[in-house]
Amino acid sequence: MSVLEKLVGKFIVIEGLEGAGKSTAIEYIKSWLLAQGVTEQQIALTREPGGTVLAEKMREIVKMDIDGEQLADKAELLIMYAARVQLVEHKIKPALAKNKVVIGDRHNWSSLAYQGGGRGIDLELINEIKQVALGDFKADFTLFLDIEPELGLARARGRGELDRIERLAIDFFNRSRAIFQQLVVDEPSAVSIDASESFTQVEAAIHCQLDRWAASL
Ligand code: T5A
Fold this sequence. Notes:
By secondary structure, the chain is an alpha/beta fold. The protein has a single domain (3-216), classed as P-loop containing nucleotide triphosphate hydrolases (Rossmann fold). It contains 9 helices and 5 strands; from the N terminus they run αβαβααβααβααβα. The protein has helices spanning 3-7, 22-35, 53-63, 73-97, 108-118, 123-134, 149-159, 170-186, 199-216, and strands spanning 11-16, 43-47, 101-105, 141-146, 190-194. The protein has a 5-stranded parallel β-sheet, sandwiched between helices.
């Protein structure tokens, strides 16, 4: 079977803190896929929360600030999963069934890191909700872009105003990062990339890890 045949129908996810360079990295993954012979039409991009009309509405809710009413932590968690089910059922699974390669800007790990590590919601509870929402559905390959929260937030700030989550204290992001770092150790089909490096170095590291993964398929 050729590399191209092995790649189709795969779900590749990029995870990491704010400003780690996930949107930028998606372009590197795309260029690597094109070099393997995957066509533009065979590539589907998604982002979380969001990616369908209804899931984008849910994204607006988690991003918005409302005077006098805070979004409860568990409400935030459940909205993340509601948006995720919507995306998986209406976009990701149908695309994979058509033998597309799906590149996800964030997926399940973000909930474990942010709502689990950051907000302090029990990870077992999150895994139970994940099981109800998605069953055993998971990424085929995860690239975790690891970055110091201070550097990531500085990059995100350079891009524009920070939103409700991005304005949280640095400790929140340190706790989230620790969960991401543990998840990547525990998951054989995941790798960590040093995202503090230059654009060129991050691109080379991503392409190298994708080559290794493809060779293992
Ligand atoms: N969330 C999400 C949860 O709490 N739980 C969940 O389950 C999920 C799914 C999503 C928010 O929701 C939270 C997490 C988030 O707070 P978002 O707008 O999608 O919000 O936020 P991010 O995914 O964090 O997107 P960002 O745009 O902030 O970060 P990216 O995509 O990682 O970074 P990118 O590529 O836009 O780069 C940021 C800046 O850095 C530069 C870029 O040019 C850009 O200006 N840059 C570099 N600069 C120097 N060197 C490099 N190597 C660089 N790479 C990029």
